[in-house]
Every structure is written in C-alpha cells, then in structure tokens.
Amino acid sequence: MSTARRCLLGFFGMTGSLVVIGSSCAGDWPQWRGPLRTGAAADSPPLLSALPAEGVRPLWTSEPIKSARAGGWSSPVVVDGRVYLFAHEREQLQELGPPKYPYLPDDKRGGMTPQQYEEYERHRRAEELERSKAFAFREHLYCFDALDGQTLWHARSESVYTRWPQSGSPTVVAGRLYILGAGRRVRCLAAESGAAVWTTPLPGEFVDEFYQASVLVSDGVAVAAAGSLFGLSAGTGEILWEAASVRTEGLHSSPALWESPEGPRVLVNIPGGMTACVDLREGRELWRARTEGGHATPIVVGDRLITYGNSRQKGLRCFQLSDTGAAEVWKFHGAQDKGSSPVVVGECVYVQGERRLACVALASGEPQWTAELDLASPQYTSLIAADGKVFYAYDGLTVFRATPEGFEPLIQARFNAEGLMAGEEQLRRMLRLDEIEREPNGQEQALRIFDREVGRQGPLKCATPAIADGRLYLRTNTSLVCYDLRTRGGLESSEGQ
How far apart are alpha carbons 197 and 187 in whole angstroms? Predict the structure, then answer.
C-alpha cells in the first residue's frame, strides 16, 4: 500500500468526516485546483529544475479518451493512488448540413439590436435541439491506477445535448466521486468501483446549457453551481437548499470554500462582476461584493479572497473577507484572461493572461515582475504549483521558479507523438530538421513535419493538469499521460525507457 493510500485511509477512518478541503495527503489532488482549490500542491517531493538532455518519457499513457470537441476539457484528479477523469461524448449518427442559425459570438452579430439577437437565439436554440437528434450523448468517468495507468473502471451513462461539452472536473471525497453532469444532474459514484450511488436532477428549465463548474464538498454538503447555487446531502443526494438569489448563468467559475470564524462559507462568482457569500449549512446568502471576477475560480488564502477578471479593467483583485462583506485591498491591471485561474505560492500571486506572466505581492498587490510567453494565444488553462515551482501547460509545458526576485524559467518543453517531453532543439534533432531545411524547399517541409510531430501534440488546450506526489498528470488530445518529475524519479523514468 502506497504512502498516499495509507494516509488517506487513516484520515477517513479516524474522522468518518467529509471535511477534507485542505486535509489531503501529499499524494492527493482530490478536486479541481487541488487540495485547497488554490492550484497549489499541499506538499511535494523535490522536482526537476531542468530537463535532462534526452528529455522525460511518460511513466504511462492511458487508454484513448475523448478529445475536447467530443469530450470537453475536464481536468484529472488524484486520490488514494487513483486518477479520475470525466468526459462528455457526442457521437454523430447521421450527416447534417450547415445550420441556418449558427452560434454568433459578440464580434459576429453585425449590429443586431438586443431584441433581434434574442429572437435569433430563440431560433438557434430550437434548431440546435432539433439537430441534436442526429447525435448520441454519453458521459464517461474513467478511473486509472496512478502508478501504471491501468484502467481500473470505466463508467458510462446516457446523457443529453449541451451547446459545448460538459467539462467539470470530478471531486473525490471519503470514497465517493461527485460530478455535475449535463442536463443539470449531480451524480455520485463509488470511487472504488464506479457504481452509481445517487443521481439528483436539479430544478429549473434546461435548454442547452453547459456548466463547467466542479462540485465543492465539505461538511457533508455537495455544492453545485448550475443556474443557481444548490446544496445537496453528500450522502443521499437530497437537495438541502437552493440559494435562489445567487444566479450563476453564463459563468463557469467553480465555488470555493472559506472557513469563516462564524462557520463554513461558499464563495461563488456571479454575473455582473459580483461574488456572493453563502452559508454552507443553510444556503443563506450573507452578502455579495463587486469583485469583477469572471470565469476564473476564486482563491481563498486565510481571510483573503483573490479574483481574476476577463478584461484589463477588471484585472486581478484582492479582498479582505469578513462575515459582513469583502473590502478591496488592492487591484492589478497588468493581465486578463477569459478563464485562467491564478495560483498563490508563499507571499505572491502568479497570474497568466495575454501571453504574459506576472508575479504580484499578496500583501500589497505590487507587481514584482512580468514576462512574455512565446505562445500564439494562450487562454483558459490555469496555473498550478508544487515544490516552489509554477507550471503552465499550453502547447508545451512552461515551468518557472516561484520567486518575487524575477522571472526564472526552469523548463520549456514540447512533446512528440510518443509523449516525450523535451526541449525544442532536442526534438528538432530527433526529426533531423536541420538537415531537411538545407534541402530544396526544405524550410516548408520542415515546418510541416514539426507541426505534425510536435505542434499537434502535447497538452489538450484549456485542460489544466494535476500534480500529485511529484507526478504530473497531463491530458492530451487522445489520452491521459503521467510524467514522473521527481528529482530522481524523473531522471530514472527518462533513462529507463
């Protein structure tokens, strides 16, 4: 039995409690954004500070799983020596022509009035629901052995159409797995076997909504954000409360837990740049504050709240929490992103947005440094941290030291079709691109080869990896891949394969 497994069983066995937020062992990443929903590993062995010359090969690669367009962008979670992943499958059963009413983003609405757009949306949704009959929809939950990637179980269930694939990440607590599925259904499964425990349809009209928020579980309450905020019995699935005034339509931010001196509180971003505070046990809304938070998940560090907006004006903000409200402490306007969540390490907040990274002092909001990312259009994917290092997985893997002294890049890796994590120059040598470029039309041929063998490989865009006990669990377009990044283990893994 592994150290992580012994630790987890001991904790649950002694307490019999569902209060696990912040109580996970070193080998656990039990929910979206890790033990505290802050993106940081609670503990970590020493990790690689540089890639070995030959790169790092996967410890294992899972069976094929659904890609983003067919399966969503769920992130893996790691508990008790197992890795869990959710996917929402859409299988086309018959051919369809182009839609008469395609989805129109803001910049494609051609001067429509609000009334015209509302009418267009009515037609679009009716057409989409009709077209959805040409597809079958299923939800998949995978459970892999964390050490060798063997599939331990794979639970399938029939699902429904949503405009984008359902993409919330599982939450695993006290031997049970919780997921917000399509069609406003909260599901609970046995983590050991994948057997269904309960399914609760949430009240409210369902049209084609997709909810990317992950379930928060604490004190025996499972909290789901799906149109409004609901609290369910983690044991039975009974709806305990609905915070009807806390509307969450249009946002995919996951709720966060704040342990107030007066009792546990749920903090959740809601439309209009607001964050609401709800009593966990009763579902009473206690207050709401203008935080300008967007799709990013709020971060709670002690009695501080960090939110991140989707424009420079909204920016990164910090608030002092109390049971009567949230008072703004500082704001930083140097970055913005549509959904990427920051990470707090020590006394600093690290944030990604607009092809840049920034380090901001947690106490004052003073910028410590900024750095540019050599990426085309990074967005949505969140930062994570372990062993004093920050990880960003988009196109490749960027690792830098968590320090206010200045941007100190440690690893800049790309991936090939076999999953090898290596520097770009190493991958170019393996593909003999320098030789090819010297041939007639070689530049064009080399670009095609590099795009096929490297550019199309690597992390699934918008899916955030997990890191647990020194291992990085990375979702790609085709599978889940595990890398041993421990100082000794990472080197041995790369040399031994």
Answer: 8
